[in-house]
Design goal:
Bound molecules: benzoic acid, fe (iii) ion
Structural class: alpha/beta
Strand content: 15-25%
Order of helices and strands: HHHHHEEEEEEEEHEEEEEHEE
Largest sheet: 7 strands, mixed
Radius of gyration: 22 Å
């Protein structure tokens, strides 16, 4: 057949992919994509002008990407697609820390620290000092947590006090680090309390958000990727209790189980011991990991998953 209409074109494209694509999963992905794209075009009666606008938009998204800027991740995030993929792939074991989006600002190569790290060192802007501490615990199949996970690594990153990430500036890494928990599963570091911020609005995705009338704020949070041999890695956030944007996060990433309390501490002796000014804030937060065994081994975050 060589003459196609809106009634038989999808079938032909699908047939060619089915015949040509060697890898079964790749074939499934491509066939599904073609079917849904064609169905979408038919449903909304896509005009040529509209499709050309969409191509111009996607081109601009690609052109906005560079070594530090990942506009495609941002697009996936604001469409809710990132959270859909997280939801499909992380049916969290009962009691384990819930997963959420990676976002566009993760970077490989952050400095390594041990217990008691000071992530404020080198920060170009001060914020409210906070001591973050807790344990990395294992959950068993009944969702009970208890056994400490020794030597876990917590990859931590967050925005500066002005809501801008280091990757959005010309400078060095700030407020990020790979913090190693000790043999008892305990970790601790000093940082600044995160603040809510706007997703980057100076590119094509920002224009899209404005055109859709959606809001563009993210509630305050720090990011963490927690990994330990033998356990499922979790990509997660800790949000700040009381933040005005917890309802309506621009990227749909909030989960009730991920909201932490930053408590004010007024104790000069403790502040001195921790190397913080008095008063200061404290966040006590345990991460709970499910064992790898029995679960399908998930690929850990790889160089290709993020920029820099
Ligand atoms: C972030 O949390 O860093 C983020 C996530 C999605 C979009 C923009 C920023
Ligand atoms: Fe963030």
């Amino acid at each position: 057949m060589r003459q196609f209409t809106e009634d038989n074109l999808t079938e032909e494209v699908v047939a060619r992919f089915k015949k040509g694509a060697k890898d079964a999963r790749f074939r499934e992905l491509m066939v599904g994509l073609v079917k849904h794209l064609h169905a979408y075009a038919k449903e909304v009666k896509l005009t040529e002008e509209e499709w050309f606008e969409a191509i111009k938009f996607l081109t601009a998204v690609g052109q906005k990407c560079d070594g530090k800027r990942q506009e495609f991740i941002l697009l996936s995030d604001i469409l809710g697609l990132s959270m859909m993929v997280v939801a499909l792939n992380h049916k969290t074991a009962p009691g384990a820390t819930e997963a959420t989006v990676l976002g566009p600002f993760f970077a490989h190569g952050a400095k390594e620290y041990g217990y008691g790290a000071d992530l404020r060192v080198g920060a170009t802007m001060k914020g409210e000092d906070v001591w973050v501490s807790g344990r990395v615990l294992a959950v068993d199949k009944d969702g009970v947590s208890g056994k400490p996970v020794p030597n876990a690594v917590l990859d931590i990153w967050q925005a500066k006090a002005d809501g801008i990430y280091d990757l959005q500036t010309e400078g060095e890494f700030e407020l990020r680090g790979r913090v190693k928990a000790n043999a008892k599963g305990e970790y601790a570091f000093a940082s600044y309390k995160p603040k809510f911020y706007s997703i980057p609005m100076d590119g094509p995705v920002g224009e899209l958000v404005r055109a859709t009338g959606n809001h563009h704020m993210r509630p305050a949070h720090m990011h963490a990727i927690v990994s330990a041999p033998g356990y499922q890695q979790v990509i997660t956030h800790v949000f700040v209790d009381g933040d005005p944007y917890l309802e309506g996060d621009a990227v749909f990433a909030v989960k009730d189980s991920l909201v932490g309390k930053y408590k004010k501490v007024n104790d000069a002796a403790e502040a001195k011991k921790l190397g913080l000014p008095n008063p200061f804030l404290k966040l006590e937060w345990d991460f709970r990991l499910a064992p790898q065994s029995g679960a399908k081994a998930r690929k850990k975050i790889a160089a290709s998953d993020a920029i820099a």
